[in-house]
């Protein structure tokens, strides 16, 4: 019938070494940059939430007028 594939795997130490090498390539942001970017995300999320709530109220008000 068919031949079975070999189940040989790379040693775990090679995987760990590769993982450490990839982590060393990561450039982590400094505290100031991280704070600024977090503030931008929070502010934009709040603004988007307000816009969606306003549109929801406008549509609800319009439907109440149309449907009576």
Which SSEs are present, and which pair or pack?
Blueprint: H1 12-25, H2 31-67
What would you say this structure looks like, in words?
The structure is a single chain. With 68 residues, the chain is mainly α. It has a domain at 29-68. It contains 2 helices and no strands. It has helices at 12-25, 31-67. The longest helix has 37 residues, at 31-67. The chain is elongated. The mean pLDDT is 88.
Tally of DSSP helical segments: 2
Largest sheet: none
Return the structural class: mainly alpha
Strand composition percent? under 5%
CA radius of gyration is 27 Å
Which bin fits the share of residues in helices? Answer: over 70%
The whole-number mean of residue pLDDT values reads 88
The SSE string, one letter per element, is HH
Short description:
The protein has 68 residues and is mainly α.
Characteristic terms for this protein:
68 residues; mainly alpha; 75% helix; elongated
């Amino acid at each position: 019938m068919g031949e079975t594939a070999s189940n040989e795997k790379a040693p775990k130490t090679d995987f760990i070494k590769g993982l450490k090498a990839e982590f060393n390539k990561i450039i982590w942001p400094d505290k100031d940059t991280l704070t600024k970017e977090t503030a931008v995300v929070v502010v934009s999320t709040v603004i988007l939430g307000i816009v969606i709530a306003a549109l929801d109220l406008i549509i609800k008000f319009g439907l109440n007028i149309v449907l009576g």
